[in-house]
Design a protein that fits this description.
Strand content: under 5%
Distance between the termini: 47 Å
Strand order of the largest sheet: 1-2
Radius of gyration: 20 Å
Largest sheet: 2 strands, antiparallel
Structural class: mainly alpha
Oligomer: single chain
Number of strands: 2
Amino acid sequence: MWRQSQLLFLLCLVLSSGSADKFTDDEEDSCTLIDALPYVVVGGAALMYAGPAVLATLGFQATGIAANSVGSWLMSWSAISSGGGVPAGGVVATLQSLGAQAGSVAWGSVGSKLGYTVHQNFICGKKQKSKKQ
């Protein structure tokens, strides 16, 4: 796993270097996929490695909900508010399902989508606003 994270970091460095400028024209708004790729890679890697760790800290682990944690408190609250059982498809069930899938591809794909969205809304949005003025 350490080797994969090193390769992912090196890929991010290579793609964010000046060599990627060969693929874009100066006339374009520089909001291409090549420009968004570092955001996609960093977002995917961050959520793939940090997402399960955050859920495990909250108590949603692969072996179940840990005792005396935020997860157990949420499970108790959810059971009391729904009349004695934790509803399927609820917040607690969804978080437990995500906690059981530690390091899955789903985490990476969600992080990649978030990275792309950040690039399009914040980086490209600022460039387009400055061109209009």
